[in-house]
Amino acid sequence: MSDFNQDMLGDMAIEALERTAFVSAEPADSEFLDELDQSEWYTRIKYSGPVSGAVYLAGSPGFMLGLASSLLGVEIEDVAIEKEGLDALRELTNIVGGSVVSALGGDRCKLSLGLPEVVEAGEFPSGGPGEHCVLDAEGERLEIFWQPAEGANAKAA
Amino acid sequence: MSCNLLIVDDSPILRAAIKKVVKLAGLEEDRIFEAGNGKEALELMSTIWVDMVLLDLNMPVMNGEEFAQELRKQPELEDVAVVVVSTESNEDRLNRMRELGVIEVLHKPFEPEDLRKIIVNNLGVKL
User: Is residue B125, in this structure, part of any structural domain at all?
Assistant: First the structure.
């Protein structure tokens, strides 16, 4: 796949949210981005093979609580961001990362996905090569950044 | 229904989400078991009979492929149905899993209905 873009990245996250957690989301309106709470929690999953790179996710506290609450089927008050919230964001990262790898690798995928991990805010890409999108997930912010390794071709062999 | 199902995934929250789907589909809660990796799963399977394993691949300690290899070394467990539920798309790895006897591969994110169909079709039961 040579035309991997921002819209596709967003669609993958939207599908993962809807199918796995029954959380609806849509691309955030750029004019109203400031109305969404800022992201405070960050995760990453790396992939390797003929090409390599990473997928980062970042969520606002409200997003983390809502995601974990939906996945577990419990009230938000019963969710701790540092525990269930981060576990939920890691799993979402795993799923979105898998979708990215599948899209990059195609039917005869030779790419391997690593394990999702929590990272510091400073590790979330602030620019450079790749694609970035912001979703409005039921009023909460979810950011996704796909970052190919430097010099890597986005198209897998 | 009286089938035992084992969810093997290192993510507690995903195990809970899958369990929720399986329960909604009609499987009794006390028939659903969980393990956080392949090693834990094998230990559990030495004490209880399991009809179907829903298996993640990328896990610490013992991953899904290592688990399937160990499972096939045990003739008494050859009838256990193993379904991969994973984000994995590496063709070589999925082929190796099929060679190890995996009957289905369900890619995350999946529709709950897809999981229900797999259980019904492969265990020959109606949920």
Answer: no
Question: pLDDT tens digits, residue range A69-118?
Answer: 999 889 999 999 999 999 999 999 999 999 999 999 887 888 999 989 99
Amino acid at site A150: E
B92 contacts A94? CB cut-off 8 A = no
The CATH code of the domain that includes A90 is 3.40.1550.10
> Does B93 contact A112 at a Cβ distance shorter than 8 Å?
yes
ipTM: 0.81
Domain enclosing residue A68, as ranges: 6-148
User: Which CATH number fits the domain that encloses residue B57?
Assistant: 3.40.50.2300
Output the pTM of the full model. 0.88
Contact residues on chain A for B109, CB-CB shorter than 8 A: 15-16, 18-20, 95, 99
DSSP string, B23-65: HHTT--GGGEEEESSHHHHHHHHTTS--SEEEE-SS-SSS-HH
In a domain, A153, yes or no: no
